[in-house]
Backbone:
């Protein structure tokens, strides 16, 4: 799934330096490694440099490096890419090294790092190393700390990875377009002591949002709020890989938010603590248990938990619209409306017409209605008991006894022990209490009054929000 290609060969290669890099270092670029597929690539243990336990990038990979006189060298290529968001849909995005988000960069505290950035976009770009302590001229803000990297040119960033933690990289050039097109990536600086904050599984991914009109391939970059696809690493459910762990593992999940809104990320079946931010590791004395961490725009959060309970546990954004695909906006609510007579008349004119919303939207889990090309169903995914009815920012943490250390493969659906699955009750039912029969009302009505129907007019503005 990962291949190598050398973008610059022979005397024609020109490196435009954004820092004081020796002629020898700038004369020979490291190969640009490219990802060709969307599957999660568990990284190998490092063969050179200081030791560390590599992270696993959900539906992504980590960028290889070369050592050059004790400097860790990477090659990022900013370029147009095609990203499969889920089987049945691809998007024309901008990213790095063949993919959006770009590959994760992993270094160790104290490493001297040199990143060659080649621009194959149709406009200038830059790279901001979000959260890093570095020389001002390496901060990547076009016009303020450096000139933009022109199309077809290569710039070099060089600095010391001074503090361990969870970071990201993205442009500070034409941000509205470039970030809306998917230009982002993860950066991990591991602690110098490999046993500090050590875990058994360490997953990373970035939150993204796109507005891609059904039937089209390219995001609408001017959208401010009404996005219709919410992603983990530019993938939507059911295209997001599961996080497969061994029972008893200490698990860390690092999440960065580069969307236009906050995301309350929720884990089922376990409580966790927030152990890190992009500002560093949190003080152990200040941590408390949670099941949901709200991640604001531009923030990173590292959560940790012990995978004690076997099962297939949902992991998702708790904003309900963010767990759907290709939603329409400004649609009326038709719950309780009898469509029968109208539907019969419409069917004479439109034979394939389907009633939607009369009983809620759950029917859309199983409807196989015609869709425009390159468009995903709004709610999709099949589980062992039927339709999951999810999309967008949703995946599963699978906790298994048989998952061996270092094994990230999916062992299938959880086999529930007998008597541990919710089931239909067919016996006699006790009387159900209703609000009208509840006691303890401090101010009961003086007399029964006729129910009042309330009509609400929504204010205009922000198109449905």
Residues:
């Amino acid at each position: 799934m990962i291949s190598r290609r050398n973008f610059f060969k022979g005397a024609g290669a020109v490196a435009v330096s954004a820092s004081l890099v020796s002629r020898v270092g700038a004369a020979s670029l490291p190969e640009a490694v490219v990802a060709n597929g969307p599957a999660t690539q568990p990284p190998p243990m490092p063969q050179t440099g200081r030791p560390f336990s590599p992270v696993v990038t959900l539906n992504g990979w980590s960028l290889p490096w070369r050592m050059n006189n004790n400097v860790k060298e990477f090659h990022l290529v900013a370029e147009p890419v095609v990203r499969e968001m889920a089987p049945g849909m691809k998007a024309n995005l901008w990213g790095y090294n063949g993919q959006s988000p770009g590959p994760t960069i992993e270094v160790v505290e104290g490493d001297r790092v040199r990143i060659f950035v080649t621009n194959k976009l149709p406009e200038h770009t830059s790279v901001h190393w979000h959260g890093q302590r570095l020389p001002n001229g390496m901060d990547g803000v076009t016009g303020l700390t450096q000139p933009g990297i022109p199309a077809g040119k290569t710039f070099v960033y060089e600095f010391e990875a001074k503090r361990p933690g969870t970071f990201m990289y993205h442009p500070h050039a034409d941000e509205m377009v470039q970030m809306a097109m998917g230009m982002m990536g993860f950066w991990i600086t591991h602690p110098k002591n490999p046993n500090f904050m050590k875990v058994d599984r360490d997953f990373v991914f970035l939150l993204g949002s796109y507005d891609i009109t059904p039937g089209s391939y390219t995001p609408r970059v001017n959208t401010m709020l009404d996005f219709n696809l919410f992603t983990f690493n530019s993938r939507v459910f059911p295209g997001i890989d599961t996080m497969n762990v061994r029972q008893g593992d200490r698990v860390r999940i690092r999440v960065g938010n580069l969307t236009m809104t906050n995301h309350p990320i929720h884990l089922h079946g376990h409580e966790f603590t927030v152990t890190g931010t992009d500002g560093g590791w949190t003080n152990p004395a200040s941590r408390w248990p949670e099941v949901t961490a709200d991640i604001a725009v531009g923030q990173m959060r590292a959560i940790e938990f012990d995978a004690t309970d076997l099962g297939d546990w949902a992991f998702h954004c708790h904003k309900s619209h963010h767990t759907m695909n290709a939603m329409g906006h400004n649609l009326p609510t038709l719950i309780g409306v009898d469509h029968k007579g109208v539907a019969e008349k419409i069917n004479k004119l439109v034979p394939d017409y389907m009633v939607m919303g009369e009983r809620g939207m759950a029917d859309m889990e199983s409807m196989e209605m015609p869709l425009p090309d390159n468009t995903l169903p709004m709610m999709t995914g099949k589980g062992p008991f039927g339709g999951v009815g999810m999309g967008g920012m949703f995946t599963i943490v699978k906790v298994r006894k048989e998952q061996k250390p270092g094994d990230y493969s999916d062992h299938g659906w959880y086999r529930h022990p007998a008597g541990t699955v919710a089931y239909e009750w067919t016996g006699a039912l006790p009387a159900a209490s209703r609000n009208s029969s509840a006691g303890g009302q401090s101010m009961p009505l003086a007399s029964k009054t006729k129910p009042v129907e309330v009509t609400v007019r929504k204010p205009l503005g922000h198109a449905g929000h």
